[in-house]
């Protein structure tokens, strides 16, 4: 029930109004500085949680505190070999000896954030961002073979979504490893993630591989051109991926004989044929990097399946000491088949990237 009150006279005191406005502004400022506390032992309890948290913190201008950093790693916390110094607040080149440090400080540079606890052995850290300033030209270099694609996961949401009146594009120069284990290979980003973004969201992020960096030397160089988007992404619903229409792939070697790439290719094709795919459905290229196109020696394979509904599912394998080309080709094919057997519309790597982008950019009206 709503009761109507009698009309009454309201007397506004300018002094009291100003005092109340000041109080509201102070309260709003205090609210903005409140920390969101995150348990770093959640799920895998490693570096991915930290990278996701600082990226979202930077984009949303929300300060965070992470406890139990790398709790599920042995030893926990940020290790000694990860430390390489403190970040200059307003420099555009960042060089750290570890992907976690580089990711934190890349997000801090983009958002002019203040950090604490980013030091050897630390199990607690704070990240207090300010406004994201765009457009930017940035270079992130962990100084090792650490994955360039993991750095891209940190920077992309921050540089993609426009939060200021400035327009244009940002340039992101990434150094490190392009083909690493326990991370998406750069070819996965090129052939799966970015095409998915263009096809379903109309976002055209351009990526150029200037030089490949293989483990353990690193030394790869990747340049990303990231447009600024003034509003949220359109919602996309994918519930039925349809049948696999075609499987594509690349078997690459750098600093190694070309015939090794061909052996990877043949092994992958053979495994896919035993799974029921016809020769006409599988198109894999063997590629040899020129000496000036790669640092170190190594190789690997990336496969991706395109479905009738426009979904992209990826699989991969990276060469390691003691593995044969046949093992690499078979491993990549089985990785793709495993993800296809799940029946999902995206694989786990694409899911991590898309969830981060969608959380920050999609509106469902």
Helix run count: 8
Task: Summarize the main sheet.
Answer: 6 strands, mixed
Specify the oligomeric state. Answer: single chain
Computed over alpha carbons, the radius of gyration is 24 Å
Strand order of the biggest β-sheet: 3-6-7-9-8-12
Low-confidence stretches: 1-18, 80-97
Give the topology string: H per helix, E per strand. HEHEEHEEEHEHEEEHEEEEHH
Share in helix: 25-40%
- Estimated share of beta-strand residues: 15-25%
Q: What structural class should be given to the helix and strand makeup?
A: alpha/beta
- The average pLDDT score comes to 81
Total DSSP E strands: 14
| CATH fold title of the largest domain | UDP-n-acetylglucosamine1-carboxyvinyl-transferase, Chain
Report on this model:
The chain is α/β, with parallel strands linked by helices and 365 residues long. The chain has two domains: 34-237 and 349-361, RNA 3'-terminal phosphate cyclase domain (UDP-n-acetylglucosamine1-carboxyvinyl-transferase, Chain); 244-345, Dihydrodipicolinate Reductase, domain 2 (2-Layer Sandwich). The chain is built from eight helices and 14 strands. It has a six-stranded mixed β-sheet, covered by helices on one side. The protein has a four-stranded mixed β-sheet with strand order 1-2-5-4, covered by helices on one side. Strand 8 (206-213) and strand 9 form a beta hairpin. Helix 2 (47-60) packs parallel to helix 3 (99-111). The radius of gyration is 24 Å and the shape is globular.
């Amino acid at each position: 029930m709503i009761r109507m009150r009698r009309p009454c006279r309201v007397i506004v005191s300018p002094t009291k109004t100003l005092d109340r406005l000041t109080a509201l502004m102070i309260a709003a400022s205090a609210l903005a500085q409140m920390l969101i506390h995150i348990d770093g032992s959640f799920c895998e309890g490693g570096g991915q949680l930290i990278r996701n948290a600082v990226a979202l913190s930077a984009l949303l201008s929300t300060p965070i505190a992470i406890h139990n950093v790398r709790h599920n790693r042995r030893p926990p916390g940020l290790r000694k070999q990860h430390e390489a110094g403190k970040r200059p607040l307003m420099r555009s080149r960042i060089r750290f000896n570890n992907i976690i440090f580089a990711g934190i400080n890349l997000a801090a540079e983009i958002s002019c954030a203040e950090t604490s606890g980013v030091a050897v052995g630390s199990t607690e850290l704070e990240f207090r961002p300010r406004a994201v300033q765009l457009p930017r030209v940035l270079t992130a270099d962990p100084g090792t073979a650490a994955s360039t694609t993991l750095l891209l996961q940190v920077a992309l949401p921050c540089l993609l979504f426009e939060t200021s009146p400035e327009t244009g594009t940002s340039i992101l120069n990434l150094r490190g490893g392009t083909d690493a284990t326990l991370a998406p290979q750069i070819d996965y980003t090129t052939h799966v993630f970015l095409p998915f973004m263009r096809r379903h969201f109309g976002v055209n992020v351009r990526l150029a591989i200037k030089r490949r960096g293989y483990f353990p030397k690193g030394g790869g160089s990747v340049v990303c051109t990231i447009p600024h988007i003034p509003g949220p992404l359109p919602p996309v619903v994918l519930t039925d991926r349809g049948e696999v229409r075609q499987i594509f792939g690349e078997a690459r070697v750098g600093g190694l004989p070309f015939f090794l790439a061909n052996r990877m290719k043949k092994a992958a094709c053979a495994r896919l044929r035993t799974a029921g795919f016809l020769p006409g459905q599988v198109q894999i290229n063997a590629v040899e990097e020129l000496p000036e196109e790669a640092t170190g020696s190594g190789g690997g394979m990336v496969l991706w399946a395109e479905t009738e509904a426009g979904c992209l599912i990826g699989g991969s394998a990276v060469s390691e000491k003691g593995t044969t080309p046949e093992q690499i080709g078979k491993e990549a094919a089985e990785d793709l088949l495993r993800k296809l057997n799940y029946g999902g519309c995206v694989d786990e790597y694409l899911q991590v990237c898309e969830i981060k982008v969608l959380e920050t950019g999609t509106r469902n009206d």
